[in-house]
Amino acid sequence: MTLRTRLAAVAGGIALTLALAACGDGGETTPEEPAAGTAAEETTGSATEAEDVHNDADTMFAQMMIVHHEGAIEMADLAVEKADSEEVRSLAERISAAQGPEIEKMTSWLEAWGEETSPMGGMEGMDHGDMDMEGMSQEEAMADLESLSGAEFDQRFLELMIAHHRGAVDMAQEELDGGENPQALELAQKIIDDQQAEITEMEELLQGL
């Protein structure tokens, strides 16, 4: 083999080595692609953690509002049966339909937070959200309503439900002032908006009786 042939062979080997090295460098860029997926997972995880963030105000809001909503539904269901006015009956149906899903939502939060779903670990010792309606407890208000009929029932139901709604608005405002969970704060504002609108509606119905 001549010197020229040997040099050509060496040069060819060097070129092949460089080509293979270049291919190896280009192939190393592909494993970097899953990094985007990892970042997305981290973002999702952060969002989930944010939803789990809560303080004592959030816990108390959910626990108390669940019981408060249960009282409203109890009154509303009675009005669906006994109301003399179609407008009052329709309002009662809407109240019951709206607050049921909110109870389920708040219950799911408390379970996810590892908290009791009712204050003090149970319903005993608690008066439906610790709320008075014109000085009446939930049980007293229900007894009062059950003793009435016709237009008298409608008037008393509206009066008591207005007082009940005002209590919910106060509780929701306390959550806005002291809570930190984004979902709980959002629901608190929704409760304020919805129930203030219903208070206005009920006051107008009272004027028409």
UniProtKB/TrEMBL annotation:
Chain ranges of the DUF305 domain: 58-206
Disordered: annotated segments: 25-50
Keyword Signal on entry: yes
Entries under Pfam families matching the protein: DUF305
PROSITE patterns in the record: PROKAR_LIPOPROTEIN
Organism, scientific name: Georgenia satyanarayanai
UniProt name for this protein: Uncharacterized conserved protein, DUF305 family
Record key words, sorted: Signal
